[in-house]
């Protein structure tokens, strides 16, 4: 990602949440994974996040799926982006695209304490 690329606080906070959810899912649902690849890039007016792991799907970890990815996908859609989680050969992939420009349907400030904190100017 271009170090000079402007990433709005709302987008950065959501990107962080996507990465955390992806890593949590690897830990919970792919305990045999030996590798996780993560890429975050700014391209064509969007922040792209891709995460893949080599935990083989189909054998199951004994745990049922939760609401993490569906809820996250709804948040991403509300920001005008898209999130896709799917099985890939010998593993799993999570990919998201978040627009870097403010979505017209989203307010500039969030009610989330984490996002508000990330949006505040540093003190001092």
Summarize the structure.
The protein contains 3 helices and 4 strands.
List the helices and strands and how they pair.
Elements: H1 9-29, E1 36-43, E2 46-53, H2 68-78, E3 82-88, E4 91-99, H3 113-119
Antiparallel strand pairs: 1-2, 2-4, 3-4
Helix pairs in contact: 1-2, 1-3
What does this protein structure show overall?
With 124 residues, this protein is an alpha+beta fold. The chain has one domain (9-101): 2-Layer Sandwich (Heat Shock Protein 90). The protein is 31% helix and 26% strand. The protein contains 3 helices and 4 strands; from the N terminus they run H-E-E-H-E-E-H. Strands 1-2-4-3 form a 4-stranded antiparallel β-sheet. Helix 1 runs antiparallel to helix 2 and helix 1 (9-29) packs across helix 3. The longest helix is centred in the N-terminal third of the chain and has 21 residues, at 9-29. It is globular and about 40 Å long. The model is unreliable at 103-124 (pLDDT under 50).
Structural class: alpha+beta
Largest sheet: 4 strands, antiparallel
Tally of separate helices: 3
Q: What's the CATH class, please?
A: Alpha Beta
Spell the H/E element sequence: HEEHEEH
Total number of strands: 4
CATH architecture descriptor: 2-Layer Sandwich
Beta-strand percent range: 25-35%
CATH topology type: Heat Shock Protein 90
Unreliable residue stretches: 103-124
- The neighbouring-strand order within the major sheet is 1-2-4-3
User: How far is the N terminus from the C terminus?
Assistant: 28 Å
What Rg do the Cα atoms give?
Answer: 16 Å
């Amino acid at each position: 990602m271009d170090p000079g690329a402007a990433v709005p606080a709302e987008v950065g906070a959501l990107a962080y949440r996507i990465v955390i959810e992806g890593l949590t899912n690897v830990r919970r649902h792919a305990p045999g994974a030996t590798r996780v690849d993560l890429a975050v890039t700014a391209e064509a007016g969007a922040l792209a996040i891709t995460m893949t792991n080599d935990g083989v799907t189909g054998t199951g970890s004994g745990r049922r799926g939760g609401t993490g990815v569906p809820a996250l996908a709804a948040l991403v859609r509300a920001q005008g982006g898209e999130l896709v989680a799917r099985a890939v050969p010998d593993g799993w992939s999570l990919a998201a695209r978040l627009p870097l420009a403010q979505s017209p349907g989203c307010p500039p400030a969030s009610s989330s304490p984490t996002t508000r904190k990330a949006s505040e100017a540093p003190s001092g």
